[in-house]
Structure formats: structure tokens, C-alpha cells
């Protein structure tokens, strides 16, 4: 007898066939109707059990959360709400789930409650849908770059460098924290540590990706990155996944073109391949927004919003233009921004980014040519001497989703910058070598994968789009 997934049975509908299916009980009604789900699809399969023909002890073991194997004939459904169902001839209980203690009961649970049950939350409709979309999006990332001839490069997780120069790093050490070896000056002697130097978890694979772009041409990384920033927001994780393409001979314009095409491509993939999940998530979002005041609800439903991104050009605006818009906008004049915009040079906060995207331009925006002193050391200095070839892609509801730049390829300019920022040049000897041997114009960017999953699924909190979120004061599971 053939074993099918719920998805196969619902999509292929082998009517009349004697089949076997495994899954978990979503609900069990009237001692007769089991809604079975195995995670393959958002919809459940109805299994009809003639309780007269089954042992009462067996029926007692069937409750929400129990794992079953059901055997029977697939028939057209007699009832409404589903097109096919199984007339069960045999049921095997793999494992029961005591209704007194199993936390995922068939009722509405808050997302906060489910975060504490992260090991079981993927059994809910919402989380199974989100995680299937997440999986599809990662596949789409690889498909896009592979089809374009990019090579997948694995950047190291443990590194001695601070790519962003922001110092928000998790130390990696095997020294005894209670009595670490000290040097003559009384400081911890890292030369006795595992790697013989100070090391940390990577904040970005960019610098290493640059070395590979300078040999393989076009590469991308897709891996976990770590930031020890104490940000408790709905858009920050201490461990998040980043996609970082790096391209030899690309200038900033080519970089922006690639970012836009890439984003549209992966969202198209999800629109085509995750229809059932997106429809479910769209309804979920509409429901959730009913409890919000009118002005906080989105103008577009989820699927419409994704289509809008795919079908419209992103607006490209310089930082300088953006500052003019922000300086003169109503919320700034009425002092409604938490961080008022007074002058050129100010760093943009998420409230400003979201104003530009959601209220002013009403479409995704790519801001470029930022002031040098609010951006990382490796960005290429413009002729004006005060701005750099940086770009951020800003998205509705999210703010910054991509950060990237054309890289400084001129050795002396880069050395000067490193000096100005008091970065230890010795640590970056290999990075500077790239500018000594066959240097060339090159560019790249980083897409925060979870922020993209948030956007594609309409989930408001980044903790709900990664299986096990790592945030300040929280590393359970
Ligand atoms: O803007 P960031 O810091 O840029 C870089 O790391 C560059 N090295 C990228 C490159 O040019 N190769 O980070 C890139 C993106 C952000 O736009 C954001 O989407 C995401 O990574 N990101 C985070 N996502 C979740 N939690 C955090 N703490 C994040 N920090 C950045
Ligand atoms: Mg950034």
C-alpha cells in the first residue's frame, strides 16, 4: 500500500485508492472526524472513523496533538469544507498527547505564548505556514544566484575581524573565565587562547566574500551572522541569516539594479509557489489588524502588497534629497519624530525610513550616497569627499531590509580611512592586499533574511519568523 503525504492526497486526489497517511491530529470531532496534518501543506485531511467498528480504547487515545497512521480509502467527501476524505479502515497511534498537558489546543494562542513553546509552535497553522514560506524563500535565493552564474561561498563563522567596525561582537574563547591568563600589563592574554588571538562570531561575511569576488567574479554568501547589539525591537535578532552577494566590476548602479531584481525574483517565487500559505497568512493578518486602529492597518492585503513590490520600480533617492524631504515634512515640523531631523549628516532612524517609504513615496525606496561618517569604513568615497557610495533598500513596514555599497578599491584612500577610524591596519592586512594586487571596482550588499521573511509573511515580530530566536536575555532551546 502506498504511503502519501497530506499534500499529495489533497493535490493528486487518488480517489478509490487504498492509502496510508501519517500525521498529527488537529481536531477530533464527534468521535468520528479527525483533521490530520503532517506539515506538508496548510490544509488538513479529514479522516472519517466509524467509531462502531473501532475499539473504544483506541478512540480514547485520539486527541489534538496525537501522532497517527491512518489507512483507508480516499473518497470524495460527503461533507462540505473539503473535496476528499479518507474512510479509515485502520488507525495506528504512534504517540498520544495528553489533553491536560499538551499546550497547543485547538483555540487561538497568542504569539507571545507560542514563543515560549517554540518547540511545538510549528504545529500551528501560522508557524507551519511561515516556516514553509521561509524554506521557499531560501530556495529562491539560491535559484536566483545560481541561474545568474554566482557561486555560493561559505564565509567563516569564527573570525578575528569586525566587518562592520561597530564592535557588536560575541567573543569566542576557551579561556577559563574565572582565571584567564594575563599579560605583563594585566590584560587578558589572548595569545594563550584557542586561536592564539582574539576571535568573535562573524557580524558579516562581506570582507571574506570580497576576497572571493576578486577571484571567482560573482559570489554570494547565505549564512548565520551575529550581533551583540542590545536592541529589543521587532526587527533585530542577535543571530540572523544574511545573504551577501559580492560582485567584481559592479559599480553602485549595477549593485542597486541587482538588489532590486533579486528581491523581485524571490518574492515572485513565493507568490507562485506558496499560494495556499500566503492566502492563510493574509487572512491571519487581516484578523490581527481588526484589533488595531484604522491608521495602523495596512492599505494593502498581503498578496497585493507582494505583487506591488514585484510590479513597481523602487524609487532611488540620494540621502541629501531624503534629508530635505524629512526636514520639511509635517511630522518633523510638528515634532512628532522621536529623533528630529535638523541638519545634513543626521543618521536616519527607522521612523524616518518608514515615513519616506510609507507616507512620502509609497513604494520601496533605495537611498544612496550617504554621509561617510555614518557608514562603515569600506565604502567608496565620492568625489565630494564627504559622501560614500552606500545604498540602503527601505521597505514598507520594515524599514531597512538591505544595506550595501560600492567598495573602496583605492589602497591609499582605504588606508587613510582605516587610520581616521583608529582601526588596527595590521588586522586587515589581507583585506588591504586585495587593493595591492589586481584591485578593481566592486560592490555588494546584505539582505537580512528574517526581515524578508517578515515582509513576505506579514508577521509583525522578527522572533516569529526564525525557528529559535536569539535576543537579549533569551537563548532558550
Ligand atoms: O546594513 P548591515 O549591517 O550591512 C552589512 O552587514 C554589510 N556587510 C552588508 C554587505 O554590504 N555585504 O546589514 C545588512 C542587513 C540589514 O539591512 C538588515 O536587513 C539585516 O542585515 N540586519 C539585521 N537583521 C536582523 N537582526 C539584526 N540585528 C540585523 N542587523 C542587520
Ligand atoms: Mg545597515
UniProtKB/TrEMBL annotation:
Q: Does the keyword Nucleotide-binding apply?
A: yes
Query: In which broad location class does this protein mainly occur, judging by the first location in its UniProt entry?
Result: cytoplasm
What EC class is this? Answer: ligase
Keyword list, A-Z: Aminoacyl-tRNA synthetase, ATP-binding, Cytoplasm, Ligase, Nucleotide-binding, Protein biosynthesis
Its recorded reaction(s) are: tRNA(Asn) + L-asparagine + ATP = L-asparaginyl-tRNA(Asn) + AMP + diphosphate + H(+)
Question: Where does this protein reside within or beyond the cell?
Answer: Cytoplasm
Keyword ATP-binding assigned to the entry: answer is yes
TM ranges are none
The record's similarity note reads: Belongs to the class-II aminoacyl-tRNA synthetase family.
Q: Which PANTHER family match?
A: ASPARAGINE--TRNA LIGASE, MITOCHONDRIAL-RELATED, ASPARTYL/LYSYL-TRNA SYNTHETASE
Subunit text: Homodimer.
The protein's name: Asparagine--tRNA ligase
Amino acid at each position: 500500500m502506498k504511503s502519501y503525504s497530506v499534500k499529495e492526497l489533497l493535490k493528486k486526489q487518488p480517489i478509490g485508492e487504498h492509502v496510508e497517511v501519517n500525521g498529527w491530529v488537529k481536531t477530533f470531532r464527534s468521535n468520528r472526524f479527525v483533521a490530520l496534518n503532517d506539515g506538508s501543506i496548510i490544509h488538513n485531511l479529514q479522516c472519517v472513523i466509524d467509531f462502531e467498528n473501532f475499539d473504544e480504547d483506541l478512540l480514547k487515545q485520539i486527541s489534538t496533538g496525537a501522532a497517527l497512521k491512518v489507512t483507508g480509502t480516499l473518497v470524495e467527501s460527503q461533507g462540505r469544507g473539503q473535496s476528499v476524505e479518507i474512510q479509515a479502515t485502520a488507525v495506528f497511534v504512534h504517540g498520544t498527547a495528553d489533553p491536560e498537558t499538551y499546550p497547543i489546543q485547538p483555540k487561538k494562542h497568542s504569539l507571545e505564548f507560542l514563543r515560549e513553546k517554540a518547540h511545538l509552535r510549528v504545529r500551528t497553522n501560522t508557524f507551519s505556514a511561515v516556516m514553509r514560506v521561509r524554506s521557499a524563500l531560501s530556495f529562491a535565493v539560491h535559484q536566483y544566484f545560481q541561474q545568474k552564474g554566482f557561486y555560493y561561498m561559505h564565509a567563516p563563522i569564527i573570525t578575528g575581524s569586525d566587518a562592520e567596525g561597530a564592535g557588536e561582537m560575541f567573543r569566542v574563547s576557551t579561556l577559563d573565565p574565572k582565571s584567564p591568563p594575563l599579560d605583563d600589563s594585566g590584560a587578558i592574554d589572548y595569545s594563550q587562547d584557542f586561536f592564539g588571538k582574539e576571535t568573535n562570531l562573524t557580524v558579516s561575511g562581506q570582507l571574506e566574500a570580497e576576497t572571493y569576488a576578486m577571484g571567482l567574479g560573482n559570489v554570494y554568501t547565505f549564512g548565520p551572522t551575529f550581533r551583540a547589539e542590545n536592541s529589543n525591537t521587532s526587527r533585530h535578532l542577535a543571530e540572523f541569516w544574511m545573504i551577501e552577494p559580492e560582485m567584481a566590476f559592479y559599480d553602485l548602479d549595477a549593485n542597486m539594479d541587482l538588489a532590486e531584481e533579486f528581491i523581485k525574483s524571490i518574492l515572485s517565487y513565493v507568490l507562485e509557489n506558496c499560494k495556499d500559505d500566503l492566502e492563510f497568512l493574509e487572512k491571519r493578518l487581516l484578523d490581527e489588524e481588526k484589533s488595531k486602529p484604522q491608521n495602523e492597518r495596512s492599505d494593502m492585503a498581503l498578496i497585493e502588497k507582494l505583487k506591488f513590490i514585484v510590479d513597481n520600480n523602487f524609487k532611488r533617492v540620494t540621502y541629501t534629497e531624503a534629508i530635505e524631504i524629512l526636514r520639511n515634512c509635517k511630522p518633523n515640523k510638528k515634532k512628532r519624530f522621536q529623533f528630529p531631523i535638523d541638519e545634513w549628516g543626521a543618521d536616519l532612524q527607522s521612523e524616518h525610513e518608514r515615513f519616506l517609504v510609507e507616507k512620502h513615496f509609497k513604494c520601496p525606496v533605495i537611498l544612496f550616497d550617504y554621509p561617510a561618517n555614518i557608514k562603515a569604513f569600506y565604502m567608496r568615497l565620492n568625489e565630494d569627499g564627504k559622501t560614500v557610495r552606500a545604498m540602503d533598500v527601505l521597505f514598507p513596514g520594515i524599514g531597512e531590509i538591505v544595506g550595501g555599497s560600492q567598495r573602496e578599491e583605492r589602497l591609499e584612500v582605504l588606508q587613510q580611512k582605516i587610520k581616521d577610524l583608529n582601526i588596527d591596519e595590521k588586522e586587515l592586512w589581507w583585506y588591504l592586499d586585495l587593493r595591492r594586487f589586481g584591485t578593481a571596482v566592486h560592490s555588494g550588499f546584505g539582505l537580512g533574511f528574517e526581515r524578508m521573511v517578515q515582509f513576505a509573511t506579514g508577521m509583525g515580530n522578527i522572533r516569529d519568523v526564525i525557528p529559535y530566536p536569539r535576543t537579549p536575555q533569551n537563548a532558550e532551546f
